Amino acid sequence: MKDLIKKTCREVANERPYKQAGNADSYSSYNEGWSDACDILEQRLIEQLLTTEAETPPTEMQILKWQNKALVEALQYLVDTKERKDTIGKDSIYMARKDLGWRKAKLLLNDIKD
User: Fold this and answer.
1) Rounded to an integer, what distance in angstroms lies between the CA atom of residue 78 and that of residue 56?
2) Lowest-confidence range among 38-47, 51-60, 94-103?
3) Element (H or E) spanning 106, and its range?
4) What's the Cα-to-Cα distance from 5 to each of 2, 48, 51, 54, 55, rounded to whole Å?
5) Is pLDDT above 70 for 33?
6) Residues 49, 74: one domain?
7) Tell me, what's the pLDDT at 18?
8) Is the dihedral of CA 70, 73, 79, 80 positive or negative?
9) Which of 3, 40, 54, 95 is 20 to 30 Å from 30 at the Cα level?
10) Chain segment 59-107, per-residue pLDDT in tens
11) Are residues 100 and 68 located together in one domain of the fold?
């Protein structure tokens, strides 16, 4: 969508080009204003698009994907720390990773239950 906005604004700006070589009429203050207005409009439309996208609530499918990803990461932490424990033994890194994995899993389960 952002690329479409840029393309469309460039097309409109090119209807009244500013400082086009060989075109004396393009050096007018009207063309300068037209060009400036197109640039401002492009910037404002893109800002609005980005703001609107940020405010759009996630779909249920997006939420499920995020939760699934978080669950996979939490479980992977647990698997990794178990493998580390088996090869190295309990150490501070093992304990920290295990706790982090459990915290992520607990948070995710609470989110899913709510």
Assistant:
1) 34
2) 94-103
3) helix 92-113
4) 5, 11, 15, 17, 19
5) yes
6) no
7) 83
8) negative
9) 3
10) 888 778 877 877 777 667 767 766 666 666 655 655 666 666 667 666 7
11) yes
Q: Are residues 51 and 6 in the same domain?
A: yes
Is the confidence at residue 44, as pLDDT, over 70?
yes
Under DSSP, is residue 57 helix (H, G, I), strand (E, B) or coil?
coil
Q: What is the pTM of this model?
A: 0.44
Domain extent, residue 21, equals 2-55
Question: 61 φ, ψ to 5°?
Answer: -65, -40
Buried b / exposed e along 26-52 (16+ C-beta atoms within 10 A)? beeeebeebbeebeeebeebeeeeeee
Residues 51 and 73 in one domain: no
Do residue 10 and residue 48 come from a single domain?
yes
